Every structure is written in structure tokens, then in C-alpha cells.
Amino acid sequence: MAVRIRIGTKIFALALSLLALTVGLSAFATLQSRALQRQLVDEAVRDIPLQDAILSLNEHALQRRLEFERWKEALELGGSDSSPVVQSSAAAYQKFNDRLIADFARVQSILQASDPNDPQTTRIRTLADTLQRDYSVVAGLQQRVIASTRAKNMTVANELIALHDKLQENLRAEREDISQRIQALSQRASEVSEQQEKRLITVIDTATGFAILLGLVFAWLMTKRMVSPVHALVDGVRSVERGDLAVKIPVQSSDEIGVLANSFNSLVEELKSKETLKATFGKYLDPRIVENVMLNPSAAEAEGGRRVMT
What is the pTM of this model? Predict the structure, then answer.
């Protein structure tokens, strides 16, 4: 019987299977971790620039209002459009107004890249549109105040200032609302990421436990398949030592143990044949002749020969 699969090959296959299981588990954990990391990066790319844009928008809106107040005050003090203070205030007002417009464009660009199906993002986008419209209204109102102040029509200017202050209060409330919603969006994203991280850890722990259990079961089955024939062979040898030649070991594999079991069965069959021959001829010949000649042909060949006898 030829050896088809060696024991060393089986052991190597067992080790390779456990290694493949470990590598597969590691690859799964790595992929899930990278997916979570990409999600965190996407959220950071969305939320952090949006928060920065809102902060920049509030800062430039405040600076524009301060320059408006400075411009109006310079005109009230009798300054003309050609005076350095008026020109400086007007230029600074326009600069911060342009920056405010750029901030709104940045906010809209970030929101357009967000999930359109997210209700919180949709609400923030609506608030941003309202805030941009109100800032545009305030800018137009400020220009009317400047024009009235320049024309020395202080009655109209004061009425417009009262309306301007009310709009500023509305803008403050809208800024707080949109800032709180952005913070809530970031907080929710952080909570979702934390839940996914916990879920990932649970999945990895479960997969690890399953891999360990599967590896132990697989190793136990392989070990049992390799050790059981050895135990059967040992029991067979002990049976032969006790004189039991009816034993026959089942050949369960084609490795070295299977070859050994097959050889053992052949040996037992040969011993059984000799015992049968001995029992048959022992009825007619001296048992010593049967033992030394018929059951030991090599001894007969070594001692046999022709003799002259009387």
C-alpha cells in the first residue's frame, strides 16, 4: 500500500488552515476598521469646515456692522464722501460685505455636498438660505441708512436704524439656531460613530471566538483522525501478544499509519496461516520438526543436505 497523504502533510494542512482563518479574521477587522475610519473622516470633512464657515460668517457679519456704525457716525459728524474717515469706513464695509458673501457661498457649497436625505442637514440648508436672505436685506437697509444720513434726513435714518436693530436681533437668533443645529449634527455623527465602533468590537470579538472554537474543533477532529488509528494499532499489538490472532485493524487512512496498519494485518494473517499449518501437521509429525522445518524454511535450508546413511 503506497502512502498517498503523509502525516506531515496533514499537520501542515492543519496549521495552514488555522493560519488562513487568522488571516481572514484579521483582514475582516482591518476592512471594518478602515470603513469606520473613512466615515469619521467624511464627517470631519463635512462638519469641521461647516463650523469654521459659520464662525467666519458671524465674525465678518459683526465686522461689517461695526464698519457700518463707523461709516454712519462719520457722516453724522459732518464728514463728506471725500473725507478719509468716510472713505476708509466705506472701503472696510465693502470688504467685509464681500467676505460675508464668500462665506455664504462656502456654506452652501459644503451643504450641497452633504446627504440630501438627511432631515437635519436639510433644515440647516434652509436656515442658511434664510440667513443669507436676511443678511442681504440688512445690507440693503444699511445702504438706505447711509443714504438718508448723507442727505441729512435723520428722521428716516432713525426709523431705518430701529428696523435695522430688530433685524439684527432676528439674525442673532438665526445664527444661534444654525450653530446649535450644526453642533447637534456633529454630536449625532459622533454618537453614531461610537455605536458603530462598539458594534465593530462586538463583531470582531464574536468572530474571534467563533474562529477559536472552529480552530479547536478542527484541530480536535484532525488529531482524533490521526491518533485513533495509532490507538487501534496499539490495541492490536497487545491482542497478538495475548495470542489473539483474530484481530484485524481497520485501515482508515492512506498515510504512514494506514500503511503500518495494513502491514500489521498482513503479519497477523501470516501468523494465523503458520498456526493453522502447525496445528494440521502437528497431528502427524513431531511438533519439533514442524516448528524447526516447516515453519522455519530458512533453518531447513541452512542445515539440510545429502548424507550417506546406513
Answer: 0.53
